[in-house]
Each structure stands twice: as C-alpha cells, then as structure tokens.
C-alpha cells in the first residue's frame, strides 16, 4: 500500500512541469508563427484566397503588436522580404502551385527561425537538398551538360527556400561563404564541366552543406527540457530508494520481533 502511494506521488510530480507549462499563454511571436503555418497549410490545399487573407492578417498583427521592436534590422529585413514575396506570389495568377507553396514555405521557415531557438524547421529540408545536390554532382562527374543544368536548377530552387532562414541561424561569415560558393556554381555553370577547379568547388560545397546541417542538429534540446528530465529522474530515484529503505527496515523489524517472541 505504501509503495502504491509512493508511485502515485511520483506520477503527480511528473505532471507538475507539464501543468506549469500549460498555464503559460503563447507569446505574440508564437502566435505569428501559427498564422504563418496556417497560411502555408491553406496554400498547400490550394486555398489561395484564404492564404492571402492570413498573410495580410499577419502583417496587421505584426504592426499592431509592434513586434518589429523585438527584431534586429537584418531580421526585420529578411522577414519583410520573405513575407512580401509570399504575398506577391500568391497574388500571381500565372504562378503555379509549386511556386506558391515554395514562396509561402520560405516565409514560414523564416518566421519559425525567429520564433524558435531549437530544432528549426529548415533543418528538416536536409534530405531533399542533399539529394538534389547529389544529382548535380553526379551529372557533373558524368559530363552530361543538359542533365547538369537541370539538376542545378532544381538544387538552387530548393536551397532558395531555406536560404533566408539559414542567415538567421548561422554566423554571418558562414552564411556568406556558403552563398559565395553557390553563386559561383550558378554564375560559372557553363565552365564547371570543363574546369578541374570548378569540380573541386562541388566537393567543397558538399562538405559545407553537410556541416551546415550537422552543426545545427547538435545541441538541439532545450536546456529547460534537460532540467525537467534530470529533476524527474532524481525524484524517481529518491522515491524508489526511500521505498526500498522503508521496505528493508520493515523486514528487519519483523525479523527482530520474531526472534524476541521465540
């Protein structure tokens, strides 16, 4: 019975951090992030008018809450550009669904990078981007010019989606170096298949991209989450140790009483 009571106490203590977190209302930044996410979902569903209304609502809320005061000039510039591009693309009748989705996704990832300090959504683009780059490198190594240009265009389109978010999450020097390598491949794309130096740039860029995702995935856990885990573990160990000690003490007292009776 005592053991059951101890277990119930442990479960109660485990629920306290969750209840505490639930009591906190979402911050204005998180609310804006939710609006951006809803706009993206509507765009994917082909509901462009509703998505347009949400993008306009985002702008109104952003201004009303004076959220621009919470961001640096660079952050504000990147957010404004990505928002304007998303709204402009949504309004273009000639733009296809992929263009619209890519533009709103780009904006969504920027807002996420500004609102979350851990596990940014752009990191989840690792597989499609690395797969696209693999196609570029394979086409270049085989000397297939037509395939190379097609694969490079696909890679650039995918990288363009996460580029603004990357600038918000990594050091300026690293972002500039990465952009410089990608711009070099795009600008001198006709010479890549004929130049050993340009081919070496492909290998260097691959290494840079791998480091980009690997470094960002390191230490993604929120320190507060580790505190909860450590605290919870300590509570469990302490409780079980106490229960075990009480049980051992009770058994010892029972044996002593039995010997006294004999």
UniProtKB/TrEMBL annotation:
The chain crosses the membrane at residues 225-245. This is Sporulation protein YpjB. NCBIfam families: spore_ypjB. It comes from Rossellomorea oryzaecorticis. It holds the Pfam family Spore_YpjB. The keyword Signal applies. Residues 1-22 form the signal peptide. Keywords: Membrane, Signal, Transmembrane, Transmembrane helix. The keyword Aminoacyl-tRNA synthetase does not apply. InterPro entries: Spore_YpjB.
């Amino acid at each position: 019975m005592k053991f059951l009571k101890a277990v119930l106490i442990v479960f109660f203590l485990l629920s306290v951090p969750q209840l505490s977190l639930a009591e906190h209302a979402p911050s204005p930044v998180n609310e804006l992030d939710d609006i951006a996410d809803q706009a993206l979902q509507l765009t994917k569903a082909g509901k462009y008018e509703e998505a347009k209304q949400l993008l306009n609502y985002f702008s109104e809320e952003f201004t009303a809450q004076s959220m621009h005061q919470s961001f640096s000039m660079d952050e504000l510039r990147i957010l404004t550009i990505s928002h304007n591009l998303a709204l402009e693309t949504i309004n273009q009748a000639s733009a296809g669904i992929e263009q619209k989705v890519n533009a709103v996704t780009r904006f969504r990832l920027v807002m996420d990078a500004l609102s979350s300090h851990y596990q940014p959504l752009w990191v989840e683009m690792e597989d499609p981007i690395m797969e696209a780059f693999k196609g570029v490198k394979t086409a270049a190594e085989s000397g297939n010019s037509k395939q190379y240009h097609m694969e490079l265009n696909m890679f650039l389109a995918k990288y363009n989606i996460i580029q603004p978010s990357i600038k918000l999450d990594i050091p300026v020097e690293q972002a500039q170096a990465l952009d410089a390598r990608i711009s070099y491949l795009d600008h001198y794309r006709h010479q890549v298949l004929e130049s050993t130096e340009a081919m070496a740039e492909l290998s260097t860029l691959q290494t840079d991209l791998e480091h980009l995702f690997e470094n960002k995935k390191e230490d993604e856990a929120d320190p507060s989450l580790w505190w909860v885990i450590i605290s919870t573990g300590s509570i469990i160990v302490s409780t079980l140790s106490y229960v075990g000690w009480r049980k051992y003490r009770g058994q010892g007292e029972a044996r002593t009483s039995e010997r006294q009776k004999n």
